[in-house]
Write a structure and sequence with these properties.
By secondary structure, the protein is mostly helical. The chain has 2 domains: about 80 residues, Orthogonal Bundle (DNA polymerase, domain 1), CATH 1.10.150; about 180 residues, hpI Integrase, Chain A, CATH 1.10.443.10. The chain contains 14 helices and 3 strands.
C-alpha cells in the first residue's frame, strides 16, 4: 500500500505539477485513510468497497471533524481512486457515486455603515501617509475591490474625470467600477499633495506607494487597516475582505440589484454574490425583533 501511495503522490507532482503543500495535504489525508483500512483488516486498496469509504468519512464526522475536512478527505480519496482506475489497477471505482458532505456557508463578517464611517475618519490627512491611507480606504470601500486588485492599480487604471477605475481581477478579467465623488476627491488630493513626495523613482506606475516610494504591498495595507481599526475602537476581526463584504452588503441594503453587485465584485457565478442577501435578511430580522412590539 505504501508503494501505491508513493506512486500516486509522484503522479500528482510530475504529471499534474501540484505544489508541495498540496502534495502534503493529499499524503496526510490518504495516510489517515490507510490507517483506518489497516485497522479494519484491509491490506490492499484494490479490496476497498464503497461502504468502507463511507465508514471512514463517518468516523471523521464522529470525531468532530468539520464538514470542510470531510469534503477535502473525500476529494483526496476520490482523486486517488480515479488514478487507480486510470492505471487499470481496479475495474470498478468505489468513489464513483459518493456525494461530498454539504458545507455550510458562513455568513461574511461585515461592518455597519457607522463603523465604516468611523474607520474612514481615522487617517490624518495632514500627513503624507495619512492622506494616502485615506485615499486607499475610500477607494476600497467605494469599489469593493480585493486588496490584491487595489495594490495592482496603476495610474493609468484610474479616470477621475469620468469617475471610474479599471480593475484586472481573477482570471485576468477586466471590469470597470464606478468611483464615488468622495473617493475621487481624496484620490485627487493624494495625487496632488502626497504621492509626488512619496515616489522616489522615475517611471513608478503604481497608484499607491509606500514610504519607500515603491508599490504598496498587501501586507502593508493590512497593517494600515488594523491600525485604523484599533483607533476607531472596532473590536471585530477586520481584514481587507471585511471592507469588500461591507461594500456589497451596504449596496444591497440600499436597493442595489444583485446582478450589478455581482458585476462590480467580479464574481463569475451569481450564487457567490447571493450570500450577501442572507446577511441583509439577518439584519432585517434583528431590526424587526428589536423594534416590533410583538416580535
Amino acid at each position: 500500500m505504501e508503494q501505491t501511495l508513493r506512486e500516486f503522490i509522484h503522479y500528482l507532482s510530475v504529471e499534474r505539477g501540484l505544489a508541495a503543500n498540496t502534495l502534503e495535504a493529499y499524503s496526510r489525508d490518504l495516510r489517515g485513510f490507510t490507517s483506518f483500512l489497516k485497522k479494519s483488516g484491509v491490506s490492499a486498496y484494490e479490496e476497498v468497497k464503497r461502504n468502507q469509504i463511507v465508514a471512514y468519512i463517518h468516523s471523521l464526522r464522529k470525531n468532530g471533524r468539520a464538514a470542510s475536512t470531510l469534503s477535502r478527505n473525500l476529494a483526496s480519496i476520490r482523486s486517488f481512486y480515479n488514478f487507480l482506475f486510470m492505471e487499470k489497477r481496479i475495474s470498478d471505482n468505489p468513489t464513483a457515486d459518493l456525494e461530498s458532505p454539504k458545507i455550510e456557508k458562513k455568513l461574511p463578517r461585515v461592518l455597519s455603515t457607522q463603523e465604516v464611517e468611523t474607520l474612514l475618519e481615522q487617517p490624518d490627512c495632514r500627513q503624507l501617509g495619512g492622506l494616502r491611507d485615506k485615499a486607499m480606504l475610500e477607494v476600497i470601500y467605494a469599489t469593493g475591490i480585493r486588496v490584491s486588485e487595489l495594490m495592482s492599480l496603476d495610474l493609468s487604471d484610474i479616470n477621475l474625470e469620468a469617475g471610474f477605475i479599471r480593475c484586472i481581477g481573477k482570471g485576468d478579467k477586466e471590469r470597470i467600477i464606478p468611483l464615488g465623488s468622495v473617493a475621487v476627491r481624496y484620490v485627487e488630493e493624494y495625487l496632488q499633495n502626497s504621492r509626488p513626495k512619496l515616489v522616489r523613482f522615475l517611471g513608478e506606475t503604481a497608484l499607491f506607494v509606500n514610504q519607500h516610494g515603491r508599490r504598496m504591498t498587501r501586507q502593508g495595507f493590512w497593517k494600515i487597516l488594523k491600525k485604523y481599526a484599533r483607533q476607531a475602537g472596532i473590536t471585530k476581526d477586520i481584514t481587507p475582505h471585511t471592507i469588500r463584504h461591507s461594500f456589497a452588503t451596504h449596496l444591497l441594503e440600499n436597493g442595489a440589484d444583485l446582478r450589478s453587485v455581482q458585476e462590480m465584485l467580479g464574481h463569475a457565478d451569481i450564487s457567490t454574490t447571493q450570500i450577501y442577501t442572507q446577511v441583509t435578511k439577518h439584519k432585517l430580522r434583528d431590526i424587526y425583533e428589536k423594534t416590533h412590539p410583538r416580535a
